[in-house]
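During the reporting period the student researcher (J.K.) took over the structure-prediction task from the postdoctoral fellow and processed the backlog of single-chain submissions. One of the processed entries is reproduced below for the supervisory committee.
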Amino acid sequence: MRRELRRVTGAEQIGPYTLLRVDAGGLDAGVPGQFFMLEAPGRLLPRPMSVCLSDAGELAFLIDPIGPGTRALCSLERGEALHVLGPLGNGFELDVERPLLVGGGIGIAPLPFLSERLGGPPAILGFRSDWHAEAAALVPHAEVCVEPVYVTELLPDDLGDVLACGPEPMLDALRALAPDAQLAWEAPMACGFGACYGCAVEIDGELKRLCVEGPVLHGGTHGSPMSPLLHARGVNERSGAPAGQGPAPPATAVAVADAQSRNGARCC
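J.K. obtained the following structure tokens:
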């Protein structure tokens, strides 16, 4: 884990998302599924982002501009500087025989890097709209669906080794179908290394910091995380396995978690 001041080498629009490219310098890209904390200009809290692409001395992050922090990151121009900390957390285990990548919405962010490391396995990706689905071009050999079709409807009978990232309802549905799947979960994060407990979740009755124990968890080993504990209980989540973004945090969330969520603090 290192913290360095790095320069933006470019930014490009892919549907509603921005692919922000940063000079890697002395930073190690880590394992697909790990993440970096990017310090957005003028914002108090950094934003957790997984590596989307790593090549030619660059790290690229796919960012959804859903709040002030992520919009600040997406507004960075070539030559501007930002602090980057990482790699952090636990990524995907790559020793799998028959990988199948599954992603939903901005949850596809770590899959291009993962696909490269695994030699381009098949992938199933779901999005809210055709505009969002433009990001599927980053993942080779991908079958794509757009709501109201869900990724679970495209799964083969023989799933193989599922590695997935996306909204919580999608991951819950995948866990039910593939109990041993590797699932990358999203949560609000403020520090990225376990100090703030902003990403604490309840797993099998125990409190876990998703930035330390995760973000990638084995479904069969850990079970399904509950919503971050800083959020109030009783969120009306959508049923099924939607391909887009997960449910918004409730209005009764405490101020820190609410600020993190509104500013796009997510690990995928």
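The committee noted the following: Residues 167 and 246 are 4 Å apart (CA to CA).
J.K. will present the remaining backlog at the next meeting.
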